[in-house]
Amino acid sequence: MSSKIGIVEINESNENIEQKNVNNNTSRQKLIRHDSLDMESRTFPGSSHASKGPITSVILHLAFQSMGIVYGDIGTSPLYVYASTFTNGINNNDDILGVLSLIFYTITLVTLIKYVFIVLKANDNGDGGTFALYSKICRSAKVGLLPNQQSEDAEVSNYQLDYPNSSHWLKSKLENSEFAKLFLLLITMLGTSMVIGDGVLTPCISVLSAVGGIKEADSSITEGRIVGISIAILIFLFMIQRFGTDKVGYSFAPIVCVWFAFIGGIGVYNIIKYDPKVLKAINPKYIVDYFKRNKKDAWISLGGVVLSVTGTEALFADVGHFTVPSIQLSMCCITYPSLILAYTGQASFLRKHNDLVSDTFYKSIPDALYWPMFVIAVAASIIASQAMISATFSIIQQSLSLGCFPRVTIVHTSAKYAGQVYIPEINFILMIACVAVTAGFKSTTNIGNAYGIAVVFVMTLTSSMLVLIMVVIWKTNIFLVITYVLTIGSVELIYLSSVLYKFNQGGYLSLAFAVVLMAIMYIWNDVYRRKYNYELENKISPENFKEIANGADLIRMPGLALFYSDLVHGIPPIFKHYVSNVPALHSNLVFLSIKSLPISKVPLEDRYGYNDLCDDEYGPFENLLVTKLKAYIAEEFYLESHNKADETLNDGRGDENDRVQKAIEKKVEAIEKAARSGIVHLIGESEVIAGKGSGIGKRILIDFAYNFMKNNLRQGDKVIDIPHERMVKVGMTYEL
């Protein structure tokens, strides 16, 4: 959050009206308050525990937690990958080696090399996901569509990038092309929508796959009963989200660790027992042979192979809940080796049991371990859903800061780790969608087709934006960029072509989700930009403001009024509307321009204060604001007076200092008096309608779609937690 504040002081004689801009860096260190969040997270200046980077114990704690949040999705892929790949059975025993080789190199290239070692480095101040990449690009190049950039933005320390800000021809092209700016925003929205769609499909396919294993023990279990059990588990999963990533992660992590230990151990057992020669699949020659034998069928089967990397996007999207080193540590030491052993063990089993491919996972488990594995598999499938649910919360939070999503409740569930959030409205919507998909599709086959499209689409879009970051921000050697595109990029495009082949077999589901979500994002962002541009075009000039404030009919009242606005370049037109209907002004006005910057966290030294931690007479924000105003006025008046004294070479410096000090005390006393008289919060609540002569499309966009979302979601005063007993809403209608 960044704020620019204008102070307007109207004295009793109404002869002197001055408007000043306050830079919120003035005397910041003197005014910072430390609260329980800072104490618990040990991030405040002067703390003996504070450090520039996460200490080893924190990394280990987060690595353990990440096991319960990040890896459930990719970790449970062995439940259904081989069954989804060999949908028509195994035609040649060596096809198993070809598919195993595909799985090995896909996980290694996409998950390990691309995401763990490259994409995670593109995090945006600790946050990941498609919007994190977009906000990083927006700060490096002026590609944002909202004209609210200010030079003061760079004064927030997290806003600046740690890379050289040299010019580049691609950067210039992006900044000068409105089409490129809009296209970049649209693909960001598409990628985000796909991840949210993934958050719906992951719980469905994971839970259905695990619960379906009960048929091995009791063949009388019907499909309807399996679906019913799955729905009950899903509802339970979404009900516990309110406890937060911290508690959920610690609860789930031991189960996932046991899961990886079991699938890795059983993999080693199967390799030794059935066919140790399966290890030769590390030779990519078997991939070539597989395509030679099966041609088009091999290409179609890639839609099943790609399910081995489902949940990989969660590695990046969930990084805001943890740290890059913690995810790299847990992935390299536990997840990656366990998955490779599990898939290799299943391939070894299939080499001797071609006919059991439709239920590879449960059939390859030793009889003595069947029930323990079933229980752990069900538990792990529940956890698998957690990865994409947490990722969905993170990316919704990021999209809010860029004005691309309607206002929703953001609940920070951990005092230690700022990125851990919970969004009640989104949680409820995800639950309803998951229940509907599970009840409607009933089997994993069609859900798997939709799942594959969502996964590969997000990966491809991530690669596209990553290449842009490599070229524009990182200044990566062009040969390395080309190498990335020709290897990982081409692999993902091949997989994308395969999953799109199954569009009419359930694949349309993920695209349908994406279209709906993208429409919501675009409508909100488009009208938000129109509204901002209207305020910018109709803002009140300084001359007009003085004319309004000097009006003969204007009544002056003692007190301090805070006038809130989204406009950062001037006074919004709603102020004139207010004065024309209520011809009275407080002796001191403070215009607060509230805007979100494309950064994930505000450093402690840049914060203004928290408005919801203490219950002082006015609240910490108001008290801090009054203190800051007094400090600013004193400093500004002192500097101006001494500059004038230097210009005139006044020798009576002592008398001048006394005069300045008295003047400062008088002005500070006026601020204190205004605050004691009462602080009032004036909130601009502007309604928007389509202007006269607008077409039917514009009317639907503004009058129906946008206003429906606005009227059914959070209002501005709830977002910034303004005390209701001192709040006045000012309404005005904008014709866009």
- How many structural domains can be distinguished in the coordinates? 2
- Bulk shape: elongated
Q: Please give the largest β-sheet.
A: 6 strands, mixed
Mean pLDDT: 77
* Number of continuous helical runs: 27
Derived from helix and strand composition plus strand pairing, the structural class reads alpha/beta
Kindly report the spatial arrangement of strands forming the biggest sheet: 2-1-6-5-7-8
> Using DSSP, what is the number of strands?
8
Range of helix content: 55-70%
Please give the CATH class of the largest domain: Mainly Alpha
Spans of at least 5 consecutive residues with low confidence: 1-52, 609-618
Cα distance, first to last residue? 27 Å
Strand content: 5-15%
- What CATH architecture of the largest domain do you see? Up-down Bundle
The CATH topology assignment of the largest domain is: Amino acid/polyamine transporter I
Q: Taking Cα atoms only, what radius of gyration do you get, to the nearest Å? A: 30 Å
List keywords for this structure.
Amino acid/polyamine transporter I; 2 domains; 6-stranded mixed β-sheet; two-stranded antiparallel ribbon; 27 helices; 8 strands; disordered N terminus
Write a structural description.
The protein is α/β, with parallel strands linked by helices and about 725 residues long. The protein has two domains: about 1-30 and about 540-735, no CATH class; about 65-140 and about 180-295 and about 305-445 and about 475-495, Amino acid/polyamine transporter I, CATH 1.20.1740. The protein is built from 27 helices and eight strands. The protein has a six-stranded mixed sheet, with helices on both faces. Strands 3-4 form a two-stranded antiparallel sheet. A hairpin with a 6-residue loop joins β1 and β2 (about 15-20). It starts with a strand and ends with a strand. The model is unreliable at about 1-50 and about 610-620 (pLDDT under 50).
